[in-house]
Amino acid sequence: MLKGKSRYWINILLCLFIGRGEAAGVVAIRPAAELLVVPIETALEGGLAIDWPQIERLYDKQRHRFIWHHEGELTEQGRQLFRWLANAELDGLNADDYHLDHLRGLVFDPSPEVMVNRELLLSDGYLRLARDLRLGRYDAQSLDPFWMFPNESFDPVDALSSALSAGALEQLLNALRPNNSAYLQLKDALAKYRDIQAKGGWLTLHLDDSLRLGDSDPAVALLRQRLQGESSRTGEMIPDPNYFDTTLAKAVKRFQRRLGLVPDGIVGSATLRALNDPVETRIAQIRANLERWRWLPHELEPQHLMVNTAGFEISLMNRDQVLFHKRTVNGRQERQTPSFSSKVTHLVMNPLWTVPRSIAVQDILPQLQQDNEYLARKQIRVYERSEGEWGEIDPVGIDWANYHENNFPFVLRQDAGNSNSLGRIKFHMPNAHQIYLHDTPARGLFERPNRAYSSGCVRVEAADQLAQLLVEYAEQPQNVWLQQALRSGETQMAPLAKPMPVYLTYFTSWVDAAGDIHFRPDIYQRDTALMLVMGEGIEHVTAHYESRAENPSL
To answer: Which of 99, 102, 304, 438 is catalytic?
Structure first.
C-alpha cells in the first residue's frame, strides 16, 4: 500500500515540477522525486490515517495540481486552511485529529520533500474537518441509540472544488457549521469557559451549613468570589462582603435557574454541588452539545418547534426568534423520549386516549389488581375482540388477577375530559415511535426541576396557547373553532393547512435569549459515551456522574 501511494504522490510532484519549468522531462526529474518516498512513508508508518480514496478523488478533480502551494510556498488559501485546522478547538473539536502536530513542524520548512508532506496533510486535514463540521465528528447512532435522525450526505471533495474555483474557502468552511445562532452562542460560551479554565478555574466551597438571605459568615464572601469567577452578577458596591444580602440572593437564584435547580436563593446541598462542579465539567458539556448540533439536519426549517428533552422545554421558533417558550414533561428513565423529527399535522380537541399495550400491562394492570374503582375513577373503558370485532365489555366481572403481561386480551380507552391523560389537546405528529405532544391534567409536574415522568410522549405547558399559535401559523380561520371545540367536550380533529416541523433533541447545555448559559443534568446518561470519545477522560466523567447518582434530580 505504501509503495503504491508513494508512487501516486511522486506523480503529483512531477506535475508541479513540470508546471514550474524545472525539468525537461520525466526521466530527468525522477531521481529527485524518488527522494520524497522517504518522508511520505515515514508519515504513514508513524500512524497517520489518510483517506486515500478521497485524496485521489480530490486531486483527480484538480487535474493532479497542487492545491495549497504555488512556487513551492503556501498559498493564501493554504494559510487559511492551516488557521482553520489550528482553531478547530474553538468548535469543540480536537485539532490533533487534523494532523496539526505534524503540520506545525512542517509549516515553515521550504524544502521540496516537506512540501509534498504538507500538501498531503493539509488536504487530508481539510477532508476530515469539513466532514466533522458538516456532519459531526462521531457517529450519532453508535453513541446514542435514541438518536433517530436520518444520516445526511455530504461530499467534501465536490464542496472544495466549487469553493476553490470561486476563491471562497473561508466562506465554505464557515457555511459547514450549523447555520443558527444557538450553535454560535454555545461556541462563544466554550471560549469563555476555556478562558476561566486558563485562569485556574473557580474555587471550591466548603460549607458546614446552608447559606441564605440574612446570614453573616466568612463563607458568604467566598460564595461571592465563586459566582464572580463565572461572571454571575453580584453587585458592584458591597458594604459587607460577609453579609448575604438581597443582591447576592438574586445572583444565587440566577445561578440556580441556569443549572435547572429550584430558584430559592438558598445555597443548600444541591446548589453547593453545582457550584463545586469543576470548569472542566462545564467545558465537557458544552463540547458534547456542540457535537449534537452538528448531528442535527444542517438546514432546519425556518419555523419549527424545538423540544429539548434534557432541558424539559419547548420553543416555537421563527428562524432565531422565540415565539413561544414553555416547560415540558417527558419520558422517564425506563421510557426515554427519543430524538427525531416529525411534523404536527393535526390538532385533536378533547382527545380520547387509547392506552398503549405496554402501559396497560406494566402500569395500569397492577393498579386494577389492587383497586376495583380504578377504571371508574379514571373513566377508562375496556374493549375485547369477539368474532373479529372490538366491542366494549363490562369490567365488573373481570378477575384481573388472572391476567399478566403475556395474557392481556383487552384494549383500554380513556374518555375525553378533564381527567384524560392527554388533557384537552393532542398535537398529532406521524412517526414510527408513537410519540406526540399533548396537554396534561397533571400541571403541578411543571413546577418540578426534574420532569421525567411520562411514558415517552411530551406533555406541554400552556398547550392551548401553542395550539392557537399553530393555527395562526397555518393562516387558517380556525380561531373560533378552536375555542368552540374545546368547550364542546367532544372529540374533534382538524388538519393544519401548514404542518409545523418538530425537532425532538437532547441538549444539556445551551444559551438562552438573554445570553445566559444553562447546564442540565444528563437525565438519560447520553453525555457519558460522547464525552469519553471526545477525550474527556474516563476517570473525570465517571466521578462526575457518580456524584450525581445520589440525587438524580440534580
So the answer is: 438
